[in-house]
Amino acid sequence: MNKNSSNIMALAPNTSNKRETVCIFGTGDFGRALGHKMIQSGYPVVYGSRSTQISNLIPKDAEVLGHAEAAQKAAVIIIAIQRQHYNFLTKLAEVLHGKVLVDISNNVKLNQYPESNAEYLAQLLPGSKVVKGFNTVSAWALQSGTLDASRQVFICGDDVEAKQMVMNIVRGLGLTPVDKGSLLAAQEIENYPLQLFPMWKFPIFLSLGLGLFFFFYCLALDVIHTYIYENNNVSFFIAISIPNRVFPAMALTLFGLVYLPGIFAAIIQLYRGTKYRRFPDWLDKWMLCRKQLGLIALAFAALHAVFTLVTPLRTFSSWTTSTEIITQALNNQTEPLNHNKAWLNDSYLALGMLGFFVFVLLGITSLPSVSNSVNWREFRFIQSKLGYLALILCTAHTMIYGGNWFLNSQAYKWYLPDIYMLALVVPCAVLVVKFVLILPCVDKPLTQIRQGWERNPRYSE
Amino acid sequence: MNKNSSNIMALAPNTSNKRETVCIFGTGDFGRALGHKMIQSGYPVVYGSRSTQISNLIPKDAEVLGHAEAAQKAAVIIIAIQRQHYNFLTKLAEVLHGKVLVDISNNVKLNQYPESNAEYLAQLLPGSKVVKGFNTVSAWALQSGTLDASRQVFICGDDVEAKQMVMNIVRGLGLTPVDKGSLLAAQEIENYPLQLFPMWKFPIFLSLGLGLFFFFYCLALDVIHTYIYENNNVSFFIAISIPNRVFPAMALTLFGLVYLPGIFAAIIQLYRGTKYRRFPDWLDKWMLCRKQLGLIALAFAALHAVFTLVTPLRTFSSWTTSTEIITQALNNQTEPLNHNKAWLNDSYLALGMLGFFVFVLLGITSLPSVSNSVNWREFRFIQSKLGYLALILCTAHTMIYGGNWFLNSQAYKWYLPDIYMLALVVPCAVLVVKFVLILPCVDKPLTQIRQGWERNPRYSE
Amino acid sequence: MNKNSSNIMALAPNTSNKRETVCIFGTGDFGRALGHKMIQSGYPVVYGSRSTQISNLIPKDAEVLGHAEAAQKAAVIIIAIQRQHYNFLTKLAEVLHGKVLVDISNNVKLNQYPESNAEYLAQLLPGSKVVKGFNTVSAWALQSGTLDASRQVFICGDDVEAKQMVMNIVRGLGLTPVDKGSLLAAQEIENYPLQLFPMWKFPIFLSLGLGLFFFFYCLALDVIHTYIYENNNVSFFIAISIPNRVFPAMALTLFGLVYLPGIFAAIIQLYRGTKYRRFPDWLDKWMLCRKQLGLIALAFAALHAVFTLVTPLRTFSSWTTSTEIITQALNNQTEPLNHNKAWLNDSYLALGMLGFFVFVLLGITSLPSVSNSVNWREFRFIQSKLGYLALILCTAHTMIYGGNWFLNSQAYKWYLPDIYMLALVVPCAVLVVKFVLILPCVDKPLTQIRQGWERNPRYSE
Lengths: 461, 461, 461
Fold this sequence. Notes:
The structure is a homotrimer of 461-residue chains. Chain A has 461 residues and is of the alpha/beta class. The first copy, chain A, folds into 2 domains: 22-194, NAD(P)-binding Rossmann-like Domain (Rossmann fold, 3-Layer(aba) Sandwich), CATH 3.40.50; 200-451, Four Helix Bundle (Hemerythrin (Met), subunit A), CATH 1.20.120. Chain A is 56% helix and 7% strand. The first copy, chain A, has helices at residues 3-11, 29-40, 67-72, 93-96, 117-124, 139-144, 160-172, 186-191, 201-230, 243-272, 281-288, 290-309, 315-330, 339-365, 368-371, 376-402, 419-437, 440-450, and strands at residues 22-25, 45-48, 63-65, 76-79, 100-103, 129-132, 152-157, 176-179. In chain A, helix 2 links the parallel strand 1 (22-25) and strand 2 (45-48). At the A-C interface, helix 1, helix 2, helix 6, helix 7 and helix 12 of A face helix 8, helix 11, helix 12, helix 13 and helix 14 of C. Chains A, B, C: Keywords: Copper, Endosome, FAD, Flavoprotein, Ion transport, Iron, Iron transport, Membrane, Metal-binding, Oxidoreductase, Transmembrane, Transmembrane helix, Transport. Chains A, B, C: It catalyses: 2 Fe(2+) + NADP(+) + H(+) = 2 Fe(3+) + NADPH; 2 Cu(+) + NADP(+) + H(+) = 2 Cu(2+) + NADPH. Chains A, B, C: One of its GO terms (molecular function) is cupric reductase (NADH) activity.
């Protein structure tokens, strides 16, 4: 059922003896862990082993027999031995004929062998029904019962009946089987547990690099420049002030980079006059990690929001406020409200908050369960229309924040532009080109190309 | 596996030739896009076409043959032609006998034909096994490989084996098949991609209308009235101050509207003395969009929270503060803390934050993956108990915010009540009637009716 | 399809008569509600009843016959009668032979009978194919069409064909069938709707107890002590100030308690020298509710964040600020910025925000749909590495917040430590022991044990 009830089951083992016997070949760590869990869930377990000497590592209630005897006792045999020892199973081919063999092996690196372990096993024993499964579950998690993560067990195999039997066992252990189709999927299933956020690598390294650049840029202009020319040590800016200049710059730049590849793709298609040619590899890869880039941009935007809201609580901020007020009070004066400044200030705050709000909506719709419940038309509406709306709002927020500061020579310490100007480069470029692309005279041919039309439809011979 | 690994697969085509040949009838845009993707995923593809002249639009590695020859090469035939041309397939009935035909067609509008395209195809070719599928995937997405949205492919068909074959192909392309049952589901599957947030339309239009009304109401009382009678131009209030009066009013009113139909339903059932008669249509429709109303209310509440927290950063706010302090300083006085005001102020802030917190919890539990992991009892506990708790907290927040301001004649500019009083109307009405409904003397008969009891159980002859 | 389109379907009943007749035994509330829904979805329905007198409770379009006649009209028979009346079905054994019987019964309490109702029914009628289902759906929800919660219907049964037929009906009603395997799962399915957040009970009671303790502790030291010794009534602190001292203390302590059982487990394994012995029961239970503890800790952390950000809006806070400034102004002085204080203040704010940010990331990855899309390696990376990072950041935040206040005798009112010191106890203990555990000399044997190695591998005879 749900995680909770399954967890309870783990504590209150079902001791019904109606479950069918399962045989496990191999008494290694994973074989033992799986056996423990199966016995807890009410399955009689028999181990097939070279030595029938009973180690106390093996669950108490399990039987240990020779391979052939063990195999005869069960319809389903879990092959908990390593690929390099699969060869010896050919000797048992007769006993294993018609049996369901579950390959649970994992490799040490991606695509280690030309064919998957399960396909190799199926080649060795053509008379048996090989099913791949259980390799995505951790032995330690089975042992400790703390299956907090995914309870999904990916299953594949060519025999539908055999797959059903294994899926029933998976369900019996409180896990969720996921049918991945025929044994061809075994390679993918074997590669799965070896991955560590493959799609996140490039976006994270890019963010790190960009972040470090922005940080030192800002450190130089805000802290070091101030120290050298004004002899004022504001090193405590490193904690909040500087991060809060780096975060929005990161967020805006990365957000622009989400929409840049789409712009490139449109230009390439317009130039080539067809959509039936592959994009260059770098563009393909870039397009595939747009979601990750967007989520990292959202994370920086969220940090920027919190770091900004905390401002009034800072010692520095209250000191600034009180100094200003006391100066005015000692001069016996009250400044009138600057309406223009109030307008600008309120506008950029409002734009920022609205932009962030739409950005968060985008983030929520990228949750797997939400994006699964919308169709393509709805998804494109959100990601394209709402996405550009958020980009426009955030760019406008940054521009109004800057105001006419870019005309001021003080903004260019060491002749370098302020960080907020750097942050505007990518999003402004995206928005300008996008504006050109949606002009009817450009949009019409692009739409035609995307609907399959070709400018130079050369027919071969 | 997950999106990521599938994306990788798209880049590293599996060139194994173990996949079975797939035939595609029709060389239109979607047929070509699907063929490209299949070849990338290792399927041999043969096109059936009237003209066997090879256009370079067709993927290089595909064969192009006449319809009959092509059909003989494969067990699964994708029908990528339009419904109005299905007729010509009857001539091929003999060749197509026993084959799996995949109807991938879409219509231009909802329920365009009396029966679905797939059912029509099945009627034309009773000897073939028709499976509906692939119509919910976009050709452009298949082509560009950027399947960021739902990877679900809805499949239905009367033949289980045929469905399994198509589902295996779906998996082979890195997509997730979802079995929707027999061919009767084809109509629904064909309508699916045409929708654009059907359940959100009414709530969004209602919010727009209500929002515009509140905005102009507030503009009139806060900006225009001030300008006319105090000759004070506070037009910059449009950016933050006025939205931040409209947002909470919207949130509270919409939140009340979420619970109002439940109240109506209870009254109707009590009046009729039975639950076995349908509610009026408007009530049915209203009840079905409560979740959407609630989420929009939550969005406004979130905007209200952020717009409030940003207050101390506003130029207007710091000007007000410093003016007040300087005035006091120049008068050589410090006002003592008003304990009563501190109590009221802290209370309404705390109530608002707690109400918002419970509201966010409600929002999180309405995420598909979370609501799928709770049972009915738990779901009703959250939505009913926690929902009313949030409504009570938010209503109390607004009431204490107002305090005794409603007794002040200044609150009624142009004899109109302040916006916060308007916002209280719906939630207060809901809470009062709900309080009556949970009185034992009312609750008991209502519970009986909901358990199937009838006040006037007339037996027909 | 998705919830929305299904909801629409409910309003626009499919009147196609292609659906196969379904028979319902029993005219109780759930039987009637299910019949209504089936007729709406286009299924001809025939009721089997002792009395064929037609009550108007029964849907108009349904037929009512004696049990035997009704059963002959349909292949699928819904058994909507209570378990204690199942006996009488044995008389119909012949008519029911080969039919699909759907057991939809629920019990009043968990594990009420030794075997599940569905298994009991299968024993009584060995010639019929029993399928468990529909018991997780509420009659009231079916009736009113407002299926906002889970649309999942858990199905189990030993006959695959029979299960397919029932799953098709489930889909026909706009619900989502979930195959739970063989009839052995019936017990679990019958227990499911009776649960009310079983895994949340202990964490919630623990939080309540801890929260009350912290609240009164804080009330005594902050309000009562101040009232007695300074004769200053700050009772309004109850609304925001005291909660905002209790919330972070709760969050930090509960967060520490999430990682404490893992520490205990490691120590026990090191001491025993094996992982093949069960942990004590209390530790097992504690480990199973770590996710819930973590989410409650996150909720308190979020409340702490909001209650802190609202500070500048409080009457008390603006009074404090203006009093301080006026005092300075009247003394004709401006205090210089205390750089040390600015550093400390900014540091603890930044650490707190970063800690909260990582904590929120942890919360997002614990959403079912997100945790399902990562593999074990990724999940452990997030929960272990990121989790400890968040704990370290939050602990450091609290420590720097305290600064050297713990050296001040004023911090110990009534000789009791301040609440922030209490909050540091658990996380500091966890971090210190964890630090010892990751020292190579301790980590190496622990890793070996977790990979299956045993210190005393006693072989039994």
